[in-house]
Amino acid sequence: MTILDEITDNKRIELVEMKKVLSLDEIKEGVNYSRTCFSLKDSLLNSKTGIISEFKRRSPSKGDIHKGINPEEVVPLYEEHGASGVSCLADNKYFGGSYKDVMKARECLKRTPLLFKEFTVDPYQLHLAKYSGADVVLLIAACLEVSQCQELADEAHSLGLQCILEVHTEDELSHYSNYIDIVGVNNRNLKIFKTDIQNSITLAKNLPSEAVKISESGISNPATVIELRKHGFNGFLMGENFMKEQNPGLALRDFIAAVSR
Q: Which residues of the chain are under the pLDDT cut of 50?
């Protein structure tokens, strides 16, 4: 069993209990459920840097990254210093997050699109993302059958949410459909957690021409962003590079300044 199998198996167990605590009817009554979502796709297309900065306390591969920090300490500075989007981890066991962190992030953001960063395996999670104030959901091809991915993307769109399809191999592009707004290439193999930026460059030529494209994981050098933009990438999902710093917001500011020179 890979770490990805372990995470998704645990997620299904968690969801059984979660549905007992917070019903779908209660979710639909939430204050954020009726809000109009912001467009991450438009934000990336109109950005010169395309940085999606992430709030993440820990990961299975790194352990604690920034223990004890809260969204309200980080997320407003991400927006202030030019993030094109903000990603917030909603998984607790492996990443130290929760849907409540996403709610706190939403409260801090005035205009920046927010990604519900989660291992989505059930339509319930789409409604939870909407309830939490997110604008975008992540669909990881390695976690889903093609038909399941398309059904989830269809339902996400019906809720006004945009979808990122995350792929790691060319074969996973079979999950792409008209309901996918953004295609993300994960440079980290989620089965063995090895990271290689070359994965984005290799897959770039095979990505759908009409899709907004982002590169995810392992990006720490402004020169890498500049190089990836040459290969057609519009956005760059970055978490650990900022979250390992004492002030992640200022780390973002300095990174964007370096990319913009």
A: none
HSE of 147, CA atoms in CB hemisphere, 13 A: 0
Measure the CA–CA gap between 126 and 257, rounded to whole angstroms: 35
Q: CA 217, CA 93: separation in Å to the nearest integer? A: 20
Strand pairing partners for 91? none
> What are the beta bridge partners of residue 87?
54, 115
What are the backbone dihedrals phi and psi of residue 250, each rounded to the nearest 5 degrees, phi first?
-70, -30
- Report residue 32: phi and psi, to 5°: -85, -15
Task: Report d(CA 77, CA 250) in Å as an integer.
Answer: 7
Q: Which long-range contacts (CB under 8 A, 24 or more apart) does 165-169 make?
A: 165/139, 165/141, 166/138, 166/139, 166/140, 166/141, 166/142, 166/216, 167/141, 167/203, 168/141, 168/142, 168/199, 169/203
Over residues 114-155, the pLDDT tens digits come to 999 999 999 999 999 999 999 999 999 999 999 999 999 999
One DSSP character per residue, 78-97 reads HHHTT-SEEEEE--STTTS-
In whole angstroms, what is the distance from residue 79 CA to residue 260 CA? 17
- Which pLDDT does position 261 carry in this prediction? 82
240-249 tens-digit pLDDT = 999 999 999 9
